[in-house]
Specification:
single chain, globular
Length: about 250
Amino acid sequence: MRRRCARRGPAGTILVAATVGLALSACSSTPAGSPHNPSSTRPPALTTSTTAPPATTTTTTTTAVTTTTTDPGLLPQTETEPPVAGSALRATLQPLWDAIVSGSQSEALPVFFPEAAYVKMKTGLLPSPVSDYTDRLIAFYNLDLAAYHEALGPDPSSVQLLQVDGSAADAAWIEAGDCENLIGYWHLPGVRFVYRQGGAVKSFAVASLISWRGVWYVVHLGPNPRPENVGTVDQPAAGAGTPGPPGGC
């Protein structure tokens, strides 16, 4: 999201020299035919007549099952706070870790804040919320993903994720109207991926998560703002490090 002031400066970042032209804007199915069931009758006896019972016809109708997926950004926001403690946060961010290991941008996109929700939050505040989402947020996300992938060294698939740490005390509800947004949301800064690489425990942060309908999404992977328009790893550290710091939006 847009921030009104810097939360961190150049210290505690890793930069990857891949640049992008970015504006530094502030923070019925049709049933099958019925089966053919021919009728049969007996010729009458000489002195009596017999009428055969009506033939029984069995029709089987198959109803097609349709599956639809609704973009969560098209649904209204709620004030439900997403979980931070326990395994829930790790389950939410596991796809992001997998994308960092593989370096796959497409694999990382489902974890990113929904475009339709962002447009709702920024319409009337930005000249073009769609362009800002695509040309700034997604562009930085892709650059950062490459930087985080590189930080795992020459054999990312050998790196073991140990834990995902966030501080519930750092989660804050950002009211509508604050931080240049029309809709409120929960914000969680500095969630840390703690991993083992070549026998050493290391970690880095996911700069900013925000909520939509009780689910955490990444809005900034690397720091925002940042010293340069390049892919940047947020708060890399030897050891587990400390989640946070609190603040920001």
